[in-house]
Write a structure and sequence with these properties.
This protein is an alpha+beta fold and 337 residues long. The protein has two domains: 187 residues, Fructose-1,6-Bisphosphatase, Chain A, domain 1 (2-Layer Sandwich); 134 residues, D-Maltodextrin-Binding Protein, domain 2, CATH 3.40.190. α4 packs across α7. It binds 6-O-phosphono-beta-D-fructofuranose (F6P). The site of 6-O-phosphono-beta-D-fructofuranose (F6P) has 8 residues, from α5. The site of 6-O-phosphono-beta-D-fructofuranose has 8 residues, from α5. Keywords: Carbohydrate metabolism, Cytoplasm, Hydrolase, Magnesium, Metal-binding. Its EC number is 3.1.3.11.
């Protein structure tokens, strides 16, 4: 089979009118930066990249050295190409403008430079998540408010998974596609075109240690799954939890399943655990483009109007039938209370 590189794939998509040259360049630049992050994560103790950076990010979370390194790699790579108006990151309180020395583009890039970073030191998969929006016209100074666009406005989204293989999974609204980094030639090569998530599943991902803190509809739903073939669902369910959203979502895009980070009494005051703009929205876009569904327990994630750059929400995504069921349980609970 003739291999298709990411660049060739993007050129073909441009010819079909699916994306423009600036967006294509942006995706290439992000992919190139992620190759450098893959090299850094792969070095581990040999590159002095393990452990904490000794700083906290805007969310009050301890930063790992690799969080900081990955953030810098993405910022530096994206500063000079002329494809961006500004960047925003999990690791920075405010958006980063493009330096005056460089031309400005029409896009806004949001990213979580290293998702699941508690996995770094134990040599388990981590990832980068990104989302691309159009910068509103006529803006000379980009502020956080310009990033507050619902997920349906995303022009592209993707993640790079640093696991046994380095994979890029990408959408620009014409399906969800997977590319594998060929380490010998240094290129991302198309390995799955038009990924489809099965509508049904018998596998779920959730942090069960939070069970006692969940709301009643979540407790009811998971209880029914755990009852397996003896309960109302009439079949046994399997559970997996990598604690890196990228890896858990990748499993769903490979063999189906569902991922949940619901509201609980610990994260309620913040609105949830996961960030809407650079975690939930890009993952929702990828999952929907693969035939799955993504809600916050009540509504489609991609239709939520963001209110803050680092806003958090509950996340329910994956195989359509399960997401519809768990969302129905939450909606019923709301109408009965
Ligand atoms: O902050 C994001 C994240 O690391 C996700 O990648 C992951 O799914 C989740 O948090 C893990 O949460 P917990 O540590 O509660 O299992």
């Amino acid at each position: 089979m003739k291999s298709i590189s990411l660049i060739q794939f993007l050129i073909e998509a441009r010819r079909k009118g699916q994306l423009n040259a600036e967006l294509s360049l942006l995706i290439e630049v992000v992919a190139r930066a992620c190759k450098r992050i893959a090299v850094a994560t792969g070095k581990g103790a040999l590159g002095d990249v393990l452990g904490g950076a000794g700083t906290d990010n805007v969310q009050g979370e301890h930063q790992k050295k690799l969080d900081v390194i990955s953030n810098e790699i993405l910022l530096e790579a994206n500063a000079w190409g002329g494809h961006l108006a500004a960047c925003a990151s999990e690791e920075m309180e405010d958006p980063q403008p493009i330096p005056d020395a460089y031309p400005k583009g029409h896009h806004l890039l949001l990213f979580d430079p290293l998702d699941g970073s508690s996995n770094i030191d134990i040599n388990v998969s981590v990832g980068t998540i990104f989302s691309v929006l159009r910068c509103p016209d006529g803006i000379s100074q980009v502020d956080a408010e310009h990033f507050l666009q619902p997920g349906v406005e995303q022009l592209a989204a993707g993640y790079v998974l640093y696991g046994p293989r380095t994979l890029l999974v990408l959408t620009f609204g014409h399906g969800t596609h997977e590319f594998t980094l060929d380490r010998e030639i240094g290129s991302f090569i198309l390995t799955r075109r038009d990924i489809r998530i099965p509508e049904e599943t018998a596998e779920f991902a959730i942090n069960m240690s939070n069970q006692r803190h969940w709301q009643p509809p979540m407790k009811r739903y998971i209880h029914e799954l755990l009852e397996g073939s003896e309960g109302p669902r009439g079949k046994d369910f399997n559970m997996r939890w990598v604690a890196a959203m990228v890896a858990d979502v990748h499993r769903i895009l490979t063999r189906g399943g569902v991922f949940y980070y619901p509201l609980d009494t610990k994260n309620q005051a913040q609105g949830g655990k996961l960030r809407l703009l650079y975690e939930a929205n890009p993952m929702a876009f990828l999952v929907e483009q693969a035939g799955g569904a993504a809600t916050d327990g009540h509504q489609r994630i991609m239709e939520l109007q963001p209110t803050g750059l680092h806003q958090r929400i509950p996340v329910f995504l994956g195989s359509r039938e399960e997401i519809e069921l768990v969302t129905r349980y939450h909606q019923q609970d709301q109408t009965s209370s």
